[in-house]
Amino acid sequence: MADTGRVDGETSGQATEHDEQAVTFADLGLREELLAALTRLGYEEPTPIQREAVPPMAAGRDLLGQAATGTGKTAAYALPVLQRLPDERPGGDPLALVLVPTRELAIQVSEALHRYGRDLGARVVPVYGGQPIPRQLRALEAGVDVVVATPGRALDLLQRGSLHLGGVATVVLDEADEMLDMGFAEDLEALLDEVPEERQTVLFSATMPRRLDAMARRHLRDPLRIQVAREVPTEGEAPRVRQTAFVVSRAAKPAALGRVLDVESPTAAIVFCRTRDEVDDLTETLNGRGYRAEALHGGMSQEQRDRVMGRLRGGTAELLVATDVAARGLDVEQLTHVVNYDVPAAAETYVHRIGRVGRAGREGVAITLVEPRAHRMLKTIERVTGAPIKVERVPTVADLRARRLELTRAALRESLLGDDLERFRAVVETLTDEFDVMEVALAAVKLAHEATTGPDDDEEIPEVTLRPERPQRDGDRGQGRALRSRSGGSGDSVRLFIGAGRSAGVRPGDLVGAIAGETGLRGRDVGAIEIAERFSLVEVPAAAAEEVIAALKASSVKGKKVTVRRDKGRD
Ligand code: AMP
């Protein structure tokens, strides 16, 4: 069963997760320098989108990939871009151009290219709005192989004559639907007109609205279409599993995992991570927090793995932190919980992982931690598996305390029902000369509680709000960049005042970019935007208003700190 499929009807020759011999990065024909980087980063095997996209893209083919964040799409195009760089690169002008919607993504993608391309000496420069232009000019002048840019800034630099696109052999449009949603359509067209016709064009997008498809038809030549997660697992395959997800920021993930584990108290759990490094780091963090966690990854010898499995089966360890490769074929009877530390890169991986619990009529639990940007992949998984995944609030400190007291109460009850308590009678009797029996009981409960549950954790984990998915709107919304007025979608919205306007050079795309880059919202969640001379007004979902205000205050608009608050005129 394939979890990627080509929509143009070609059959895929690539292996899927269930194939006997797994596909390695070396099988994809990547050069040594890239393989070395991937090993260093602890990537054990390509994700489905990488298996599908890397070979044809490395061979120079145009590609239209439908894949969301979390699928490994960045490496799916970054590796072939690097693979195609010539060994000798005497010129200073870029050979590849990657266009992305937000500053945050520009930084992330350029960091990824830099890490993968280190041994190739790849020169990667990110350019985006909000950073002073002179610094970007200097970086470009020093010579560059790959430019990662937001469309507005790329166009600015092009018009100033500082960005030369005459040598570009590959153009990648990443999160193309977001770029259109943010009003970058005209900028993209203008940029694509400037790159040589004899180029490779690659487009990745989570959704494929009609307008984007039309754009792809104009600019891509005979593209190979690749789509992640098309097939639905056959009926009856799904085990009995309670599936929940928690949306948390990257920084809050270790604490959130600890909190969820405390409340769930699994008998034995597997926590899945993406890379070897993540496995090692998380195992160390969990042990530091008092859990008995063991690491399992492809970098370990068979003997080491056997020892780890022995400790899990014998109950000396309660948590196994593992990569998919290492956990393949693993069968642990007493497993009660599967935790996805990240949203898996393919729906089938998800199904495969959670299939390890909920066997033989017992109910299993699957928990997924979702970073705001990856929530679309969660939706894809829900759609493909046909089973709802309930997004819950991370337990609060109060929830945890209540749960711990409940555990202590249960332990005391068990002792009252079963243990021989006679030998403690004298202790209680002497104390009751001085104290009330209730007070003696309270002190005893406190001691028992503290002895079994350890110190209370009082770190509150910040909640991240997600907007419900809007129905996919096909076709053109007909918005220009300068003036946009959109419904803002379902639900309440509020207007925010932002203390920078036309005189500071603010354009709608800057505001949408800053919001989408710094919060869990997407471009399309932002409603009407008004830009006045000295200030701007932006409509955002009411539920996310505080998050947007905090994020914008902490960052900058057009390179400057600005006032951000609810618009007093209306709310
Ligand atoms: P993306 O979907 O491109 O945003 O990637 C999501 C995350 O997966 C990033 O943190 C990547 O570093 C990581 N990643 C991408 N490919 C692999 C792989 N083959 N193995 C492990 N981690 C990966």
UniProtKB/TrEMBL annotation:
Domain Helicase ATP-binding per the UniProt entry, residue ranges: 54-226
Locus of motif Q motif: 23-51
GO function terms (MF aspect): ATP binding; hydrolase activity; nucleic acid binding; RNA helicase activity
Pfam families named among the record's database cross-references: DbpA, DEAD, DeaD_dimer, Helicase_C
Key words of the record: ATP-binding, Cytoplasm, Helicase, Hydrolase, Nucleotide-binding, Stress response
Source organism superkingdom: Bacteria
GO CC aspect terms: cytosol
Basic and acidic residues composition-biased segments: 466-479
UniProt keyword Amino-acid biosynthesis, yes or no: no
CDD domains, per database record: DEADc, RRM_DbpA, SF2_C_DEAD
Occurrences of domain DEAD-box RNA helicase Q (ranges): 23-51
Domain Helicase C-terminal, chain residue ranges per copy: 256-401
Region (Disordered): 1-21, 451-490
Compositionally skewed regions (Low complexity) per UniProt: 480-490
Membership in a protein family: Belongs to the DEAD box helicase family.
Protein name per the record: ATP-dependent RNA helicase DeaD
Species of provenance: Geodermatophilus nigrescens
Highest classification ranks of the organism: Bacteria, Bacillati, Actinomycetota, Actinomycetes, Geodermatophilales
